[in-house]
Structures are given as structure tokens and as C-alpha cells.
Write a structure and sequence with these properties.
Order of helices and strands of chain A: HHHEEHHHEEEEHHHEHHEEEH
CATH topology of the largest domain in chain A: Beta-Lactamase
Structural class of chain A: alpha+beta
Oligomer: homodimer
Distance between the termini of chain A: 46 Å
Number of domains of chain A: 3
CATH superfamily of the largest domain in chain A: GAF domain
CATH class of the largest domain in chain A: Alpha Beta
Strand order of the largest sheet of chain A: 7-3-10-9-8
Chain lengths: 340, 340
DNA sequence: AATTAGCACTCAAGCAAAAAGAGTGCTAAC
DNA sequence: GTTAGCACTCTTTTTGCTTGAGTGCTAATT
């Protein structure tokens, strides 16, 4: 059901004020600070109704009201007055992205960094698994006769650390030829496409069979590693905020933030089809800690969602600032990725 | 001045008991649990003397005694009975190091990981800046006519992410030749040595001058980045320990542990020439937080100290376990590095 | 000269009762 | 529908009191 305009106004005031002061909001505070035209008794009736509807809660009978998770969600999607960044902040964002843009990972790293710095919350970014990343080039570094470090460059990133074994009998020239063969065959293709390639190991090819299989194996490990691709910044920023004055809250928060796989699943799980997803932890056993909020957005290239970025912090978060920063960073991020 | 045997014994008991129980140790506890032959009044006199000497402190007049930083240091260097690891633990250490050993960084990473897991403290490792790392091989990935990604492999690690600009007029063949020239010239040399090489750009060489200069530039950035080489594991392990029930303690701890450059300077600053260095934070403005302890050791190859590894945790730390783990890991670490 | 028993003293920690204050819900009047 | 007024609830803070652990000191003992 749709809320009356006055209810919306009051709810907005409560959320605004609570975000600002961290103190439960009383009817008196509302009339005195924001709505001198009506009396506190009227506001009390409205607050009571909003509580009935699930948007507000009371810590105890004689305390002011605190927004519920639903209230924050509504606030972000409808109630909140959008913030604008200062020219200084906008310039700062732009300046960060001027740095080298040769691979998506470093672009995303910059995005995550700037988000954390401007919002003062822990920021995160995940890039899609990369099944659509395009193969660019392969090179081998032969360290010993039987092992080589294989380097694969995609349009997204460079992968190293994949050691493969090669037949010791193979000469360096043959290895070189193998790499140019692979380059010719795979170049420009996505991982999905590469897997479909029917390899015809005829006589001119047969010597490279092991290599090919090993390279594809290396590619598979590349696409399998997902937690690796979680980028975070400002893991300790949450301590700056008043809610984290309690040891258990801190433990809860850290137990999530220090586990990249947890962060990954939170960010990639079902997102509603709205611009900014807000997820707030309710009980203690969910993926997100109690009273902890995750605001995230996806970025796309050519209409394909290829990653998610956002912030993690207390439920009582400065959503105006956060959304403004995410919005602006997102725009630049997409424009850079589109122009590649 | 040298302590009497009895004082040493009592100090050892106090530290042992305090590490075990986290409760200030009373004269009564000492006589009842460990020294039934003498009376508590005698112990009290000794405790009083040890306090006078700076080894013990009292929280208030009617509390038991707590070891001072000096007491912990003496404990580790002289008083403590060395712990032995179980066969299971030893096997675990060995098993971890069986993994790929192709570069020092990954070996150190394993060391740090195993230390954190066995001790349950945050562990750290830093490798020397690398002026003695040996150049192995260079390769160029030409992305655009005017830029290339340069990959340099040393005996320690692989460095990527160094983009250099190349003259667009240069053909791929010339670039290839440049890389084999560089390989021939630099191979097996340390950074120091490379810097000393007098480059004679005679006619056959002159075309590669820009490349050479750019490569050396890339090497310099490599050696300049130092905080990068701080490896850490178990950043949230400290929360497991009783001392971190206080928010300010947590903040202090995290403010150090999340800043790699701080950890770096703590680990690399003046170490006494003993096997296990113990540094304990005293006041709040030092590099190390109050009541926080850092136990570290260096590892060497051919008599050259090339890195430091250790743990960070509360002053009331299980030094027996920590030293035993560090000792064993250090041995394996050095044997692996020596055998390269 | 070192050790010990005994005792007074100190201080933290826990508890209960009281006081203060903020905020609500309800009711009756506007 | 709105509002003033008031009783009621619940938290927070303060205060005083009690308990108990542990020490330091002193005088007696070995």
C-alpha cells in the first residue's frame, strides 16, 4: 500500500535525522527541528502507524523511533533527496581514473579505492568470472626443461602464476611455435568459444597436444578462481562509525570482511533489477551481519552486466553520499570500459 | 644485574601463569600452584623486589602482579622452557612447503600462512627490497605500437604491471632482438650490478637506447616498492584472544595491521642481534600499540639477512608456541632458499 | 639473616535503591 | 482530524554499601 505524503515526509525526516545523529528520533525532535506546523501528538500518531507498517521500531516503550531495514530501502529508492558531489570530489574521481587503464582489473581497483576514500566506508568490487573475457596473447617462460610459466593476456587482465609442464624433449623453438599457434587459434575468442574449438591434431600438430591440453587446463583454473577477483579497500573504515563501539559488532563485521568468499557471495547473490541494491542484515545467522548494510550497483558493457561494486557499512549509513559516489564512479567506470 | 635463581624461577612462574590464565598472579597462587616449599609472605617480598627491578607491575595496590615488557623479553630469551611441536604440526609445516617453490615470494607466503595457522596469531613476512635479486629474463608484450607491458622475472618473483613506451617505429623483430640483448646482458646480475653496467651504445646498439632506459626505469620502480612486499595472514586472529574485548584496543590493533607500511617499518627497524626479537608497545603513540607484542626473526641465505618473519598479537602471547613455530618454519624456509 | 604468621589496609567489583529524564500512549477537549 | 495534558514506562546515572582478594608491614620464629 502507498504511504500518505505526510507519512513519507515524516519517515524521510526520521531516517535523515537518525543517520545524522545516531539517536532514536522522538516526536518532539521532529516537530521542533523540521515540522513546527503540526504538534508532537499528531506526529506520535503517525509514528505509531509507521511502526505498525514495519518501517520503524522502538528499542523500548519510552524511546524514540529507529528506521527498520525496509525504511532504509524505501529511503534509498524513493524518499531520499539525492546528493550532489562537489566539484572537488568529481575532479578527484576523474583524476584517479586518469591512471593507466590497460586492464579492467586495475580500472576496477581504482574505482574501489575512490569509493572508499570518498564515502569513508569499506568498498568492494567484483568482476564477472570472465567467461566472456577475450583471449589476446600467450607466452611461455621456460624455467626448467620440464616446466614453464604460462602468461595469458586477456582484454581484462594478465594471468600469471600458472605453471604448466611441458615435454622436456621439446625445444625452445618448438615451444615458440606452439605459442604462436595458440595465439593464432585463440586470439579474440572468449573462453566459452575456446572450449568449443575442435582440435585437429594432425601430423603437423600432434607434437603440441600436451601443451594445448595444459594451456586449456590453465585457462580453466583462471576461470574457476572467483574469490580472487574480489577487490576491497578500507577494511577498517567501519571503525570510524559510532555503531561499532561494541566488540561483538566489530567481530561480526570483521568475520565477513576478512573472508573474501563471503563478500563475493553477498555481492553476487540475487539482485533486484533496480539501480542501487540495498541489503541489510537482520538476524545474526544471515550472510550479512545484523544492522549491517550493503549498497551495490552493477556495471555493464554493451548491456551485459559484468560486475558489481558497492560499499559495506552500518545500516545507519550516509546513503545520500554513498549513492552519489557510486553513481558518479559507475558512470566513469562504464564509459572507460565501453571505450576499450 | 643478574637475578637470583629464585627470582628467575618466580618470574618465570608469573609469566607462565599469566599467559595461561590472563589473571594477575598473586603470591598465594604461586605458593599453592607451584612452590609449596616457601610461604606466600616470602614470595611477596620477592615479587616486591621484582617490581622494583621493573619486571612486574601492579594494576592497583591490592591486585596481583602482571609481567612488564621487560619480563616478557627476558622470558623469551632466558626463562622460558622451549616448546616442541607435535609430529602432526611438523608434518603440517612440511606439507605446506611441498607446494610450488618457483619464486621466493610464494615460499614466504606459505611460511606466513603456516605460522598464522599454527599459532593463531596474525603473521607477517617481509622480503628484502631485492637489490640482490637476480635478473633472469625479460619479455615484452606489445599491445599498441607505442606501449608494451614488460615482464621481468627474477629469482624471487615475477613483475608485471610495468608499462613502458617504445618508439612506434620499432618493428616487432627489433623488439624481440632488444629483449634477447637485454637478457644476454643482464642475466644473472643483481639490480646493483645492472645499474653499474656501462652501456656502450655503438651503432649496432643505438636503436635500443630508449628501450634500455625504460627497462631500467621499470626495474627502479620494482625496487622502490617496498610496502608491497609485506605479506600478512590472519589479520583478524587477534580477536580470538581475551585481551581484545575492548574497542580501543581493537581500533589500535587494526590501525596498524591494516597499514602495510606501518607493519613494514616495525619489522624492518633495528633488530637486536638475537634469534627472536620481541618488541612490545608501551605507550599509545609508538609504532606498536600498547600491550601489543611483535616477535620476529630474520632469515638468511649465505649469511645475508634477506627477510623477516614473525607474529603480531597481544603482549600476553603464547611465546612458547610462537617461538617453536617460528623456529621450525625458519629452518625449512632457509633450507628451501639455500637449495635454489 | 632469612622466613613466616598475622593483621590492618586498599581497592575493585558487584549490587541495590533512588533519582532524574526522556518519550510514549491515551483521553478529553478543541 | 488535531492537540494539550498527564500518567506511565523504561533507561541511565548516581550513590552508598558490602564483599573479597591481595598486599605491605611488623613482630615472632627458625
Amino acid at each position: 500500500m502507498e504511504l500518505s505524503e505526510r507519512k513519507k515526509k515524516i519517515l524521510q525526516i526520521v531516517v535523515d535525522d537518525y543517520i545524522d545523529t545516531a539517536v532514536p528520533v522522538s516526536s518532539k525532535a521532529i516537530t521542533e527541528k523540521y515540522m513546527s506546523s503540526i504538534s508532537s501528538a499528531t506526529v506520535r500518531a503517525e509514528l505509531s502507524a509507521l511502526e505498525e507498517l514495519g518501517y520503524l521500531t522502538q528499542l523500548h516503550t519510552s524511546s524514540g523511533r529507529v528506521p527498520s531495514p525496509d525504511a532504509y530501502k524505501l529511503y534509498v529508492s524513493e524518499l531520499m533527496i539525492k546528493d550532489k558531489l562537489t566539484a572537488k570530489e568529481l575532479n578527484y574521481i576523474k583524476s584517479i581514473f586518469l591512471e593507466k587503464t590497460d586492464n579492467i582489473e586495475s580500472v576496477l581497483k581504482n574505482a574501489v579505492k575512490v569509493i572508499s576514500e570518498l564515502t569513508d566506508y569499506t568498498s568492494v568490487g567484483v568482476h564477472s568470472k570472465g567467461e566472456d573475457d577475450k583471449f589476446r596473447q600467450i607466452k611461455f617462460f621456460r624455467f626448467k626443461p620440464e616446466t614453464a610459466l604460462v602468461l595469458i593476456v586477456t582484454d581484462v587482465k594478465l594471468l600469471k602464476d600458472n605453471y604448466i609442464s611441458i615435454p622436456p624433449s621439446m625445444t625452445d623453438e618448438q615451444l615458440e611455435e606452439a605459442s604462436s599457434l595458440i595465439n593464432k587459434l585463440f586470439s579474440g575468442k572468449t573462453f566459452k568459444e575456446i572450449c568449443k574449438i575442435e582440435l585437429d591434431f594432425n601430423e603437423s600438430f600432434i607434437g603440441y597436444k600436451t601443451i594445448f591440453i595444459n594451456v586449456i587446463e590453465a585457462l580453466k583454473t583462471y576461470f574457476a578462481e572467483d574469490e580472487q577477483s574480489v577487490l576491497m579497500e578500507g577494511e577498517d573504515k567501519f571503525l570510524k562509525h559510532a555503531e561499532y563501539a561494541d566488540v561483538n559488532r566489530i567481530k561480526e563485521f570483521l568475520s565477513v570482511v576478512t573472508k573474501k568468499e563471503k563478500v563475493f557471495s553477498i555481492l553476487t547473490e540475487d539482485n533486484k533489477d533496480i539501480k542501487f541494491n540495498v541489503k541489510i542484515g537482520i538476524d545474526d545467522d544471515g550472510a550479512i551481519p545484523k544492522d549491517c548494510s550493503v549498497v551495490s550497483a552493477t556495471y555493464s558493457v554493451n548491456g551485459n552486466k559484468i560486475g558489481t561494486y558497492g560499499v559495506i557499512g552500518p545500516a545507519r549509513m550516509d546513503y545520500q553520499k554513498v549513492v552519489a559516489v557510486l553513481e558518479n564512479v559507475g558512470k566513469i567506470l562504464e564509459s572507460i570500459l565501453a571505450g576499450r
